[in-house]
Specification:
Blueprint (H helix, E strand, L loop, with lengths): L11 E6 L10 E6 L2 H11 L9 E5 L18 E13 L5 E19 L5 E6 L3 H10 L1 H19 L6 H12 L5 H8 L4 H9 L3 H25 L4 H16 L7 H21 L4 H16 L5 H15 L12 H11 L4 H17 L6 E5 L6 H12 L3 E5 L7 H4 L12 H9 L5 E5 L12 H9 L7 E2 L6 E2 L5 E6 L7 H5 L1 E5 L5 H19 L7 E2 L2 H11 L6 H26 L3 H14 L5 H9 L7 E2 L2 H8 L8 H4 L5 E8 L2 E13 L4 E4 L4 H16 L1 H4 L14 E6 L13 H13 L7 E3 L2 E2 L5 E2 L4 H10 L4 E5 L11 H6 L1 E5 L2 H8 L8 H9 L1
Parallel strand pairs: 1-3, 7-12, 7-13, 8-9, 9-12, 14-15, 18-19, 20-23, 23-24
Antiparallel strand pairs: 1-6, 2-5, 3-4, 4-5, 5-6, 10-11, 16-17, 17-19, 21-22
Helix pairs in contact: 2-3, 3-4, 3-7, 5-7, 9-10, 10-11, 12-13, 12-14, 19-20, 19-21, 26-28, 28-31
Bound molecules: adenosine-5'-diphosphate.
Length: 851
């Protein structure tokens, strides 16, 4: 096909600009296309074209296509090769590009460039007219001689190769069958020639000149082969192999003869990579590994899957910040101001963080405990982590560990796997580009475990200052120094953090906020942030503190401020719509439109909610802020989600309010009991853990043993409380598993109410573990529990006496709102929980005497 006899190319050709190889007529070249004009040519001409003519393009050598569409076209090489695009392969790796397989047809010269965009098109003149050559050379004797000479050399060269290889035999046959005029181009592509030499051959339009130029190249190749044969003489077998190796590879691809160029181009990349490796500041060990890998890479054919893998690996190695770090600018006073500015309240946490930073400033190393912030969601753990990075002037990167159950997530996959990649730590370092960032390990309490190993164990190595300077990711397989990284962890609870990991960390509890703190946080931080995010100004919207309090008490029930933030966001969105509408109306005062809208509002909104739309209309002059009052709140957020239900639920005997601690903060919990005829069975519902069930049994046993003393009777008046009686205890929110001993006092109070028929005070909540002897033991999470009770509007809280010290942590204003009853035994609990106490009453004694 190469030397097709009468090729007629179109007079206008789209031009493919190449700079990596030179395509000669009769040979085939693979070329990568990724620059904008070339990509356009492939897309709109080759991929869309349907006729054979549309697959003919002009390949211009020695001219690179500018990387940007807007750049001017460089001056084009005058002579090019008209080519047939035989194959187009698209790929997205490492960036979108096409690989074209083109076969050269004949030379052409550019007469005039017709257009440059989206891809260049030129009017061209065909230069090779192969059928003429035959006539020509017949007429010119010299050319006949030249071609004869050339043919001889070509035959000599081919015969030096191993004829048993089919491709060599085929080439030998081709030499005889192809027209002589086509041979210079074809052989130049086959033998070892530089791009420059090929370019000269391409530019040699006259056939005579072309023969003259190629003969020395053939001779050079023949001499080279002879020399090789001589040096390899002793080893006969080897000799043959060596001689054939290179030419073979080329001959195999006849007429795809331009592998040299391909390799050259690719080698360029590899050489660049090698240069980068040598100049990078990686550790000695890493450098050794990389150099070994690059050596392998050079020998590897590009089509091997391992080629891409190795290349990826080397590129990652070059990119990693082996020695690149940011300079710490730590100034404790500035850090304090920044932390205070970014976060309201959380004094204990800020104090500890400042201490930590101060020690770092004095000691200048990081060998200390890893800080772990433990607290309910939305209390600002992540955001404090971010502030720490800011005060230090370090990069910040968050690694979410929730649900990670494969240790390869931390440590990476070995490179033997397909799709292997480095772990999150190394990936994070690559992302931030420095070796001393602040890494926030988010949700360490939610690490999973699976057959693929324990990620917590992998984290141990990362967090241990003694060993993390030599952290070895499986993918990298060389040590990377993590000792400069500042790790901070966050969790909702310490209960599920693996003990070994917990041991490496210093736990700082971040409790929930009080209502007052939430209001302050909302007005200092959340509202300004939301306004900015929604493009509003304080002149357009005003949220008074009472409204914030309303949102906090009636639309959210949480320890942190996340849902509050979301609600504020919803308000801002609604107002943004109104403001935008207002502006719209202002610019287009179309009365009909306004009227129609007004009507709609009247139909769909009730009388109260009109206030927001009215206010919104008033916002037309922008200096009038939209006031978010109770009605507006209802309009935007819907009816309140939480109402004070306490007194309503305590209207029957057998209900008491307990305080529970959950990873999401403290909560109030209604414990309900009822009795019915039966055989003395105790039924417990509400997904209780074993400890809680035991508390229930303890409570019943204590009440039974003290029934006489408190005059507690069953339905038939017997002191044996379980005689012919079944008891059912229920802990609402049945879908949530509950466990722990702290509900003991609540169960006792609830049952005491049931058996005495008296109501528990509706404003009292309690917590405490009980013993069989009626003592009240201390429990944890007092601060969260007290805040929950305060949120729910309760007034009195019964806590174990030994928890008295925990009250100091609670803000003064919350303490002032509440009355605390310290109890060391159940007598005290019951006395406080019932109006007028629970002591033995004279009335009861009278009853006794009757019996
Ligand atoms: P966590 O990590 O504890 O779940 P975040 O750090 O994501 O919580 O905090 C949620 C949002 O609440 C953030 O926008 C944060 O800025 C804000 N926030 C929480 N606590 C405070 C605080 N004390 N002062 C200012 N903003 C706060």
């Amino acid at each position: 096909m190469a030397a097709g006899s009468a090729i007629q190319i179109p007079s206008r050709l789209p031009l493919l600009l190449t700079h990596e190889g030179v395509l000669l007529p009769g040979s085939t070249m693979r070329t990568s296309v990724d620059s904008p004009r070339n990509m356009q040519l492939v897309r709109s001409r080759l991929l869309k074209g349907t006729s054979l003519r549309s697959t003919i393009i002009g390949v211009i050598p020695n001219t690179s296509d500018p990387t940007s569409d807007c750049d001017d076209l460089p001056s084009l090489h005058r002579i090019g090769t008209a080519a047939l695009a035989v194959q187009v392969v698209g790929s997205n790796w490492p960036k979108p590009h096409y690989t074209l397989l083109v076969t050269g047809l004949c030379r052409f010269q550019i007469l005039q460039l017709l257009k440059e965009k989206p891809y260049p098109v030129a009017e061209v003149e065909q230069l090779d007219r192969l059928e003429q050559f035959t006539n020509q050379h017949k007429s010119e004797e010299q050319l006949g001689e030249l071609s004869e000479q050339f043919y001889k050399y070509a035959v000599q060269l081919v015969e030096m190769l191993d004829m048993s290889v089919p491709a060599v035999a085929k080439l030998r046959r081709l030499l005889d069958n192809l027209p002589r005029e086509a041979l210079p181009d074809i052989l130049t592509s086959i033998i070892r020639t530089s791009n420059q030499e090929k370019l000269q051959i391409l530019d040699a339009v006259r056939l005579e000149e072309r023969f003259k130029m190629t003969i020395p190249l053939l001779v050079r190749q023949i001499e080279g082969l002879k020399l090789l044969q001589k040096t390899r003489k002793p080893k006969q077998d080897d000799d043959k192999r060596v001689v054939t190796i290179r030419p073979n590879r080329r001959i195999n691809h006849i007429p795809s003869t331009t592998e040299d160029e391909e390799e050259e181009a690719d080698n360029d990349d590899v050489v660049m990579l090698e240069k980068k490796i040598r100049t990078s500041s990686m550790s000695e060990q890493a450098l050794k590994v990389c150099l070994k890998e690059i050596k392998r890479l050079k020998k590897m054919p590009q089509s091997m899957p391992e080629y891409a893998l190795t290349r990826n690996y080397l590129e990652l190695m070059v990119e990693l910040p082996w020695n690149k770090s940011t300079k710490d600018r730590l100034e404790i006073r500035a850090a304090r101001i920044l932390l205070d500015n970014d976060h309201y309240a959380m004094e204990k946490l800020k104090k500890r963080v400042l201490e930590y930073l101060a020690v770092r400033q004095l000691k200048n190393n990081l060998k200390g405990p890893i800080l772990c912030f433990v607290g309910p969601p939305g209390v600002g753990k992540t955001s404090v982590g971010r502030s720490i990075a800011k005060t230090l002037g370090r990069e910040f990167h968050r690694i979410a560990l929730g649900g990670v159950c494969d240790q390869s997530d931390i440590r990476g996959h070995r490179r033997t796997y397909v799709g292997s990649m480095p772990g999150r730590i190394i990936n994070g370092l690559k992302t931030v580009g420095v070796n001393n960032p602040v890494f926030l390990l988010d949700e360490v309490d939610k690490l999973g475990k699976s057959l693929q190993g324990d990620p917590a164990a992998a984290l141990l190595e990362v967090l241990d200052p003694e060993q993390n300077h030599g952290f070895t990711d499986h993918y990298l397989n060389v040590a990377f120094d993590l000792s400069q990284v500042l790790f901070i962890a966050t969790a909702n609870t310490t209960a599920t953090i693996p003990p070994a990991l917990l041991d490496r960390m210093e736990i700082i509890q971040v409790p929930g906020y009080t209502q007052e703190e939430k209001i302050e946080i909302a007005h200092r931080h959340l509202i300004p942030k939301q306004l900015e995010q929604h493009g509003l100004t304080p002149q357009q919207i005003q949220i008074p503190q009472v409204t914030t309090l309303d949102i906090i008490t009636r639309y959210t029930r949480e320890a942190g401020v996340r849902s509050l933030d979301r609600k504020l966001g919803a308000i801002c969105r609604a107002v943004a719509v109104k403001v935008a509408e207002g502006q719209h109306k202002e610019t287009k005062p179309d009365r009909a439109e306004v009227d129609e809208e007004d009507c709609k509002e009247h139909v769909t909104e009730d009388a109260k909610t009109e206030s927001i739309s009215d206010t919104a209309d008033l916002a037309l002059p922008p200096e009038m802020p939209i006031l978010i009052d109770f009605h507006a709140l209802k309009d935007i957020l819907g009816p309140p989600m939480y109402e004070m239900e306490v007194s309503e639920r305590l209207s029957q005997p057998g209900v008491a309010i307990g305080l529970a601690w959950t990873p999401l903060g403290g909560e109030i919990m209604f414990v309900e009991a009822s009795r019915m005829d039966g055989e003395g069975q105790l039924t417990l519902t509400g997904q209780l853990g074993d400890v809680m069930k035991e508390s229930a049994h303890l409570a019943i046993s204590w009440l039974r043993s003290n029934a006489k003393r408190y005059q507690l009777t069953n339905a038939s008046g017997s002191f044996d409380l379980l005689d012919n009686t079944d008891i059912h205890l229920h802990f609402p929110a049945g879908a949530v598993t509950k466990d722990g001993p702290s509900a003991g006092v609540t169960i006792v109070t609830c049952l005491a109410s049931l058996f005495s028929g008296r109501l528990v005070c509706s404003d009292v909540a309690m917590t405490g573990e009980i013993t069989l002897r009626g003592l009240v033991l201390p429990v944890g999470g007092i601060k969260d529990k007290v805040l929950a009770a305060h949120r729910a509007g309760l007034k009195r809280i019964i806590i174990p006496r030994r928890n008295e010290k925990d009250l100091e942590e609670i803000a003064v204003n919350v303490r002032q709102d509440l009355t605390f009853v310290m109890a060391s035994c159940l007598d005290e609990v019951l006395n406080a929980a019932f109006d007028g106490g629970f002591a033995v009453k004279p009335r009861v004694e009278r009853l006794n005497s009757k019996l």
